[in-house]
Amino acid sequence: MDILFYLSPLVVNIFVMDVYRRRSLTEALVAGMAFGSASIFIRYLSFYGINSFSIAFFRLIIGSFVLMLFIYFLAGGRVDVKVFDRSLYGEFKVILVMAIALSLHFIFYIQSVIDTYILNATLIVNTTPIITLIFTVLLGLSSVSIRDVFGVALGFIGAFIMVANGLGGGTFIGDLEAFAAAVLYSIYIISGKFIGVKDIISVMSVVYLFSVPIIFLFSLVLKEVIWVPLNEPTPFLFLLALGVIPTAIGHTLFISSLKGLAPHETSLLGLLEPVSASIYSVFLFGELPPSTSIVGGVIIAISIYIISKK
Questions:
Q1: Mean pLDDT over residues 270-299, rounded?
Q2: Helix-strand-coil percent breakdown of the chain, rounded to 5?
Q3: 309 torsion bin: left (phi>0), alpha (psi -120 to 50), beta (else)
Q4: Tens digit of pLDDT for each residue in 216-248?
Q5: Nearest to 165 by CA among 55, 47, 293, 34
Q6: CB 3.0-4.6 Å disulfide test: which of 76, 105, 129, 241 passes with 184?
Q7: What are phi and psi of 50, to 5 degrees?
Q8: Contact 81, 226 (CB under 8 A)
Q9: What is the pLDDT of residue 85?
Q10: Rounded to a whole number, what is the distance in angstroms from the first to the last CA of the chain?
């Protein structure tokens, strides 16, 4: 009986950890499926002639609004204004860099979904861990191992195989746009490491709000008109779904799942996006990517796993 007395707290702790981990894995799975829906909504919106600037503009407006609602209800109807004050003033330069990088990331990623295969766009943009590793080593923020070098080399081989098919067709530009989106998201992630505010959801909502006027300025410079058809209710529904499901809900569940998962598992979460997006695109659009995209994608997935698993 004495042994059971001493072991019972341990058994309870193990059970609680298992429940907590299962919850995190469930959140990660749902988040990955939510991320995959983004490319589907984008593709549908492009059928109405809506450009990437307009999609990114309205996606961020809706996403920031929903995130602020989350903050409001999670805080029991009270919002800590000091968090936003620090975000706006104490972290202004970092927030601005993150907002610019995120704005351009969304524009390039959305355009890549329009210009190339959904598998290519979603998987190339998820090479972010590889690009982030390169940047952090060049900036002296981390060291590099033989495993890392092998993983990076393997990732570039996979990317070359994936885009090889596009060299003779019309998808190469879209693949480059997806790569540019991955580079910009790496800058966004690295910049986020310098944020001192612990309330990440609040910071994200501020970044989203900052990104809206930045996209508008880019559209003016590049003479891209931000618009949606006023006589069609369907595009509004797709924009609302894009702002809520992958942007607000997906990112919130992703952040919540980080607490119960290992670092390499959180990085592999990104691979759920191209898997779910490809499944959606096959059934909804009949889009079957070429064998080079599949082979290259598998190699990239392996390289991300190698780099992420420490």
A1: 85
A2: 80, 0, 20
A3: beta
A4: 999 999 999 999 888 888 999 999 999 889 877
A5: 293
A6: 105
A7: -80, 125
A8: no
A9: 56
A10: 41
